[in-house]
Design goal:
The chain is α+β, with helices and mostly antiparallel strands. It is 72% helix and 8% strand.
């Protein structure tokens, strides 16, 4: 236990003894995690916005004039794929049409009959399964036509996929760069203390005993970088969040009014940064010391 405490203390002390290289590793980790964190938050907000936009798209379910309206409504609501269900009577439908085409009001008012059928407006719980929902609605007795925004659904799916791929690639690239630079920084630190290490090996110290202080050093730098990244992310994200709400109320129509505030995620972000920083710092240290001490 005393040896373990000694190694922990040595690892923390080595951060200050090699402060130039430690600072370099700290800067690299902080910038990399900051970009990763902001990318993750942007991906989360984009997912929320896309979900909100997709919720505003409704499937029009047109019924036969002799259809049992209540029965059809019950069947629609019983589908697990259906979200909100809204009924529009022929009278309300005609009124909405007149309001949409105000210049043709006289024409609509003089029609010999109401051409608008009973209609249900249905949103999909999962826009990726809108085709399945459309098929279900079409098969209901009393439904003669279903109009679904298939092209828009494909557009939303493509954007979501693109954001996901770009975000994952960015996160993987930044994580890899961080590990490489931390490994090189640690390798320089190991090289600078090569005489000390040689003496330790000469007196019988195991590789594990030698590696532990470097391992602790890498984790400690990672934890500090995590806290710094969290503070920078908080400042940047809150500034952007305030800008969006200060004078861009029109964005509410696109669902941006529902993006998460940093306060809702602050502890998750802090924990994620600290864990990620510690892991990246530790991995970089293990890689570099492992290669140096091999053999």
């Amino acid at each position: 236990m005393s040896n373990f405490s000694y190694l922990i203390k040595q690892g923390i002390k080595s951060v200050w003894r090699n402060r130039f290289m430690s600072f370099a590793g700290f800067c690299v980790l902080t910038v990399s995690m900051l970009l990763v964190g902001l990318s993750g938050l942007v991906m989360l907000d984009c997912e929320i916005i896309l979900a909100n936009v997709s919720d505003q798209n409704e499937i029009s379910v047109y019924l036969n004039d002799d259809a049992d309206i209540e029965k059809v409504g019950e069947q629609i609501k019983s589908s697990s794929l259906a979200g909100s269900v809204r009924y529009i009577s022929p009278e309300d439908g005609l009124q909405q049409m007149i309001e949409s085409y105000e210049e043709q009001r006289t024409l609509f008012e003089n029609l010999p009959y109401n051409p608008v059928p009973p209609t249900y407006m249905v949103t999909a719980n999962d826009i990726d399964r809108i085709s399945e929902l459309t098929a279900t609605l079409t098969s209901i007795d009393g439904v003669y036509k279903v109009n679904a925004p298939m092209d828009f659904a494909k557009f939303i799916r493509d954007i979501r996929t693109a954001f996901t791929v770009v975000g994952l690639v960015l996160i993987a690239a930044l994580g890899t760069v961080s590990v490489i630079i931390i490994a090189n920084t640690t390798r320089l630190s190991v090289f600078a203390r090569r005489k000390e290490i040689s003496i330790m090996r000469a007196v019988g110290a195991t590789n594990g005993f030698i590696k532990t202080p470097f391992f602790v050093e890498g984790m400690f730098i990672g934890l500090i970088s995590g806290v710094a990244s969290w503070l920078l992310t908080k400042l940047i994200y809150e500034r952007i969040y305030d800008m969006l709400y200060s004078g861009f109320q029109m964005w509410e129509a696109l669902g941006i009014s529902r993006i998460v505030s940093f306060d809702q995620l602050t502890w998750y972000v802090l924990l994620g940064y600290c864990v990620l920083g510690a892991i990246l710092g530790a991995i970089g240290t293990v890689v570099s010391t492992g290669k140096y001490l091999k053999g």
